[in-house]
Amino acid sequence: MSKPPAPNAPDEKPRAAWHRRKSARPQEILDAATQLLEEEGTADLAMAQIAKRAGVSEATIYKYFESKQALLSEVFAQWAKPFVARLNEDMRSIADLHAQLVTIGLQFLRGLESTPRLHTIFYREIRWTDYRGTQLHKINHDFAKTVVDAVQAGIERGEVRAEVNPAMVRDALFGGLEHIAMRTIFAGRPLDIGNEVAAYVDLLLGGIRIPTPKPDSSPNEASRLAAQIDRLEALLAKAGKS
Questions:
Q1: Alpha helix ranges (H) inside the chain
Q2: Is residue 105 within 8 Å of 200, Cβ to Cβ?
């Protein structure tokens, strides 16, 4: 009888899931679900598919996640956390509003470009199903709040008009960037992210109307004063004759 290979022999097959540490299983399940979501491009995955990819049984998945929705929510939360953390770290060293909004826009579109299918699933499916109040909703709120905070700070510095609503700027920024992504990244078309974001932020901060030049008030003001003086002199002359 031939001797079986040693436990760490190079030709040994990967150990079965039940041989691995239990503490590693939740992450392995999340990794498997993430891979399948990016490959399939839909949240309509069977738990059996995820279990097979993770090398566990469906029953094992339910030991760690009470439902498929809970599992998918955790997948997206885990995917988004580092992204938001990096953005908050970058924002600490930037004081100029234009540079802050460009930084946010770059991170946003580059994130879409790196995992387009996950983002598509989030926008089309996850965001509309039992989304509010979840951990993922809070993370997304924290990300969007970076725009509100930046604009509010700009108001306090006197860089932005006091009557501007920071929430409207947030909606305009992300709404516009999402549409840019839909016609380029999600459609498989090329996109120069740096130039596109800079141009969009310029538009957002500058507006679209050509400023109406104010007329030179000096000549008009001088004419008005001269007319008033003439009238006063005429009145004084008339009074002196009476």
A1: 25-40, 47-54, 58-64, 68-91, 97-114, 116-124, 135-156, 166-183, 193-206, 217-241
A2: yes
Specify whether the CB–CB gap between 75 and 30 falls below 8 A.
yes
Give the CA distances from residue 240 to residues 131, 233, 234, in Å, rounded to whole numbers and listed in that order: 86, 10, 10
166-186 b/e (C-beta count within 10 Å ≥ 16 → b): beebbeebbebbeebbeebbb
Q: How many CA atoms lie within 13 A of 97 on its CB side?
A: 24
Dist. CA 55–CA 53, nearest whole Å: 6
The per-residue pLDDT for range 146-191, each reduced to its tens digit, is 999 999 999 999 999 999 999 999 999 999 999 999 999 989 999 9
CA distance 231 to 229: 5
What confidence tens digit (pLDDT) does each residue in 61-115 have? 999 998 888 888 888 888 888 888 889 888 988 989 999 999 999 999 999 998 8
Say how far residue 24 (Cα) sits from the centre of its chain.
Answer: 31
How far is C-alpha 58 from the chain's CA centre? 34
Radius of gyration of the chain (CA): 31
Q: At what angle do helices 97-114 and 166-183 cross, to 10 degrees?
A: 40
Among the listed residues 33, 62, 64, the one whose alpha carbon sits nearest the alpha carbon of residue 49: 33
Q: Determine the Cα–Cα distance for residues 164 and 172; give it in Å rounded to an integer.
A: 12
